[in-house]
Amino acid sequence: MLTNIPLNNIQLTDPELLRGQNNTINYLLSLAPDRFLYGFQKVAGLPTTASKPYGGWERLRGPNFRGHFLGHYLSALAQGLDIAKDDVTRSKLLAKLELCITGLNRVQQVYTTANPQSAGYLSAFNEIALAQINGSTLPSTAKENVLVPWYILHKILAGLIDTYEHLQQYNLGLANTALHMADQFGTYIYHRVSQFDDRQKVLKTEYGGMNAALYHLFTITKDRRHLAAATYFDDMDLFNALAAGKDILTNQHANTMIPKVIGALSRYECFSDPKLTNFYLDAKARQQLPRYLKAAQHFWDMVVNHHTYVTGGNSQNEHFHSADDLYHDAVLADGATTCETCNTYNMLKLSRALFKVTGAKQYLDYYEQTYTNAILGSQNPKTGMLTYFQPMAAGYYKVFNRHYNDFWCCTGTGCESFTKLADSYYFLENNTLYVTQYFANQLILPAQNLRLNMAVDRQTGAIAVKIHQLIPNEAVKPMQLKFRIPDWCSQDTELRRNQIPQNLTETAGFITMTQVVPGDTFTLHFKMTLTLTTAPDNPHYVALKYGPYVLAGLLGDRDLTADRPCGTLVRAATRNPKASYFLTSPVTWSQWLKALPLNYQLNHKTPYLISVTLPNVNEPIEFVPYYQIFNQRYGIYFQWQQAE
After folding, report:
1. What is the pLDDT of residues 522-540, one digit of tens each?
2. Structure confidence by residue, pLDDT tens digits, 51-94
3. Rounded to whole angstroms, how far apart are CA atoms 315 and 320?
4. What is the DSSP code (8-state) at residue 558?
5. In what order do the strands lie in the sheet with 500-501?
6. What mean pLDDT do residues 326-353 have?
7. What residues contact 438, with CB distance under 8 A and at least 6 apart?
8. Which ranges carry the Non-reducing end beta-L-arabinofuranosidase-like GH127 catalytic domain (predicted)?
9. Which of 216, 217, 209 lies closest to 234, judged by CA?
10. In this structure, what are the phi and psi dihedrals at residue 429, rounded to the nearest 5 degrees?
């Protein structure tokens, strides 16, 4: 199995990505931990250290998700320690994290003392919410108003584990405190689920990646109770159907399904070590392990090949619908609510894990597509705020969260995304380094005593890699590099080593360079071209890409604040009915397709990375990279028609 490179060994040097990363760091530092702790302190009977909590999804009254964002906040702060640009910024992040962990630890201790039968419980809502999910009959006055309690608890547990893993080199004592809290919390979860009499009721309500987090915790603690609790959240009816290749996604809540499947793959990863497997699993459980991998692979195939738009995003109104109904969902249904950003975050987690397990390049190609367009395109570069939905149809705009009044799920996962931008650029297998994504960065490899510098011209697809000795006068361990060949590049790929052209021998989508030592330089050129994608249910509903970049047509800035309420405290864009929806051509469809890659106009002198003008189209639309668009109405998909 491949291993990832620690975040603190990779330094971004791409200016756009650095801006996005810094936007998120600044946002994290602007938030007040005491206001997130408010609900936790109330549950424990402690005096609150803030005068009021945050609002939005963190509100106390009305349907809410209170407590979830603190879990995301822990994860993002912990990752931020590894990518902080200087010691001053790191110390500020650490101070925020210390306030969170110290406050939560106090809450957990006090609650445990007062409620020894519930030792380890840690939440911003009362335990009665878990009884509600299990179907217990309760008086209305006793009920809680949180919508998905196990989902919220997953975020808290995952945040504690992330804190432990990232904090050890900066504050070992605080890291161990976070682990102790996660340990106690995991044990509480074990005791709690052991009491439930109807497992299916729990599994039908969104619970995030609770199984994945508990498997992760088990790999650290080796506590059988944590393993048993993780197994409880495995939806075996779903996994068995997926492993058998049955597409049962129609009308399912997408971001309930994706984390469940990440949990299935987490079990498979957890027991990739035969010693661990033989010690903790009986013969039947060992025999069933491949089923979890098959479920994850088949699920990924179904989502990516039948429910995914050109950006890599999926879903409409948070749900999967009929396979291949992309035009229907974007146009005939509510087009403002396509492509929930949380879904892309979780599909990247799944793709990353599948690549580590299988080494199959297709997962990296999807990763690039989705990261470049849906993730980088989810942030407002001026404010750092983040999208919930990303409309695919023409005439909409991006709606971003407000700084202190929303705290959506996609705000939380977005903060995590922009504090781990480089986490899938490289992978190691023994002494082989897989170079998987192409954004400017610097990588250090202490075990090899090597440093790798990558410069990227994202306008042209030119890449330069130089290898340096990390510490002079110390031994160097030569290694081999495997460069991923992107699925979008033409056949004209060029590679030079120390200025000498290389014969390109591709193996499973990678070019291998052996005996790499300090002083080696590699220059690659992946030629970018204009390509067209169509919707399966409407062959004339088209979207464009230039290399890895999805292009969107600019449609003006009219009424960019005309949001409408959607779901629970979410806002969605409204469509301008006067915006261009068609690409009208004076020539036939076949003639247009033939001329498109030959006669389009590419402009590098633009405020955007590039801009493109299409041939044989009556509408004067400028197309630019979707990820760079904000404060503009746009269209990704347009309906092609021939002029009468």
Report:
1. 999 999 999 999 999 999 9
2. 999 999 999 999 999 999 999 999 999 999 999 989 999 999 99
3. 5
4. T
5. 10-12, 441-445, 450-457, 462-469, 521-525, 494-497, 500-501
6. 98
7. 454, 456, 463, 486, 526
8. 10-422
9. 209
10. -140, 105
